[in-house]
User: What shape does this take?
Amino acid sequence: MNIKEVIAVILIIAFFLCAYFLFPKPVEFSQTVSIILTILLALTLLVIGVMTFMGRYIERRVVFLFVGIALTLPFFMQFDLPVPISPEVQAAYDELEKLPEGSKVLAAFDYDPPSAPELQPMAVAFMKYAFQRGLKIIIMGLWPQGPQQADQAIQTAFEVIPELEDKIKYGRDYVNLGFQSGNEFVILRMGESFKAMFPTDIYNTPYDSIPILKNVKNYSNIDYCFNFSAGKPGTVEWVQGAVDRFNLKMSAGNTAVQAPMAYPYLQAGQLDGLMGGMAGGAEFEKLTEHYDKATVFIKSQSFAHAVVIVFIIIGNVAFFRGRRRKK
Amino acid sequence: MDWTTFGVWLAAVFTLGIISFLYRDNIFYKLCEAIFVGISAGYWLITFFWDNLYSKFYSQVTDPVDPQWTPWIGFVLGALMLTRLFEKIGWLSRWPLAFIIGATAGVYMMFYFVSNAMLQVSATILPIYTGSISGAISNLFIIVGTFCGLIYFFFSKEHKGAFGGAAKIGIWFLMATFGASFGYTVMSRMSLMLGRLDFLFGQWLGLIK
Amino acid sequence: MRREIPMAITFIVGFVFLFAYFIPHPPFNEFENTFNDSFSIIAAFAIWLGALNLIKISLVKIFKKKSDVLHSSFIVISFLVIVFFGFYDGIRGLYADPVFSFRDQGTGFNWLYEYVYSSLSATMFALLAFFVASASYRAFRARNLEATILLIAGILVMLGRVPIGDLMTGWLPDAFQISNWANWIMNIPNTAGQRAIMIGIALGLVSTSLRIILGLERAYLGGD
Assistant: This one.
């Protein structure tokens, strides 16, 4: 490390220590400051555009810095953005609305902490909605971290609505069966018997002594399934193994990377509804009237998308100009 | 000791350590990476032990009311898997591997044929007359797009003439697909970083409401 | 026999699952259930194999090759720490009153999961946000018609899926809102393209699976 880098590291550490101990909390920019910062960001991008146009490509670390700024600044800006509802998220919500109180819903949590920013807001909104509607939730996971993420979603739902914690009882209103390895083989086996795959819940309570699981033998005793999926195993395996083989009705929340691949299933009717990525989470939060992380994050998402698109346009403008010069 | 505050600080240090890679590769990042690798391996080992070997195998074979013997098949084959660690008897690990390959092949064959082939083909057979122009155009797009996309992937015939024209249309639909996937991928990656920034500025520094 | 027995196992297990799909009655469904349960247990051992192999390689690096000692030491130490807490909390939870799980709030294992594993794994993947932006700036060029279609579809979806898209086109009629364009792209051309890829993969997978079950495809057995 050279002297400049050492100084930079010291300054960064000093900034974070000051932010932790000295900065007033929380930090909120007024509307004027927000507008000024947005204009400054736009002007700087314009300068970069001109530089690129003149053949001086900027270093990738400058691109990283702009992405970081675009993602961070909106956290401190006070403005709301209207979230449009897409038909597939509306369809997922409508299916849940049709379920009467007491319906048994299988919630499959197939994701891990890296995917939590996209799927956790959906999961929290779902849990809050389900508990308020009196739906009975049977949680399981094909990913080891899934059941823990489910627990966190439930804790967050209880924090948002404290009355729920007194009203909702583990074992009667929801159960966490935990994780099982085997991917699609778990799904297949559950078609015959849930108990064979999950002889106990995560607390090692035997299957037969859990009240919510009374009369739940397999998928035919489940009214609906909701899957939160970040990859394999996930929505695709649930559609193949449970929906198409055992006629289970299902909607899914997917990470944005996986969502485009689920559209054929949606169009074919194998999936009732689909929530894709953080945008899907924000839409679901709006429909369930639970405005939380996804609704807040969508602002930063908007800025980041705008920055990426501007960089793509800048790069292409310079490319076409260079091609014209060669001709 | 307030383990929660210590945990938040530790998580913040690890987060900044990984992010430092954006500047350049450094020893701090390498150590965080090493800890991640070790913790991941240990996490998976423990989870699979308690959730599978204990709750599924051990509790079923030692059940006082109805002990099972069939889990022993999986246990023995699984134990053979571990012979891969020893060079001389490593060839025994082919048996459980063959089991996994055979099971996967058998299951996937029907799963993919039914869900990803047959049902998708039947969902593509859509009516052109739907009562509305937009519906008719949309259905036509799906039919033409799927058909031409499949033609593009048929490499046993040269892409010439009408066949080549259909393949060209197929590529256009595939490019729209990849563009949509790209857009969603950008959204996904940005969301991942948002989660970490929310942790740093919210949970750690407390600067966000 | 080193190749013949595994091939026989593949054949028997593959056919049991195939038959059970069409004849879900005894004895095929009983065999299928037994093999399903066995698969879960074998999968657990496969994970154990991966983890133990990693530790074996790290220990060899520390004690024999003496290269990457610091890196490998951290791998082994962090592995041992979480394994210790995993077994300690698990066993303690079994005999506690009331019983608790090794991953419950308040256990050492859960603390490591929340503050070490989660933060490291999430940040590792979060770095991709920056690389995707940088790659788009440097390499995403509309060189020809196909690339232009890809670019336009990508930009419309990126704008349409976030609120600023509709803010930009708020003055236009409903049908011309960017979010509607994004919905149309996802539901029509994207569905068509994904479906074509899906069907192609499915047909290839069916033929490969049959070849594996029949023993015509033996690459998974390795050399020797």
Notes: The two ends of chain C are 11 Å apart (CA to CA). Chain C has three domains: 1-65, 68-126, 141-213. Chain C has a mean pLDDT of 91. Chain C touches chain A through 59 residues (CB under 8 Å).
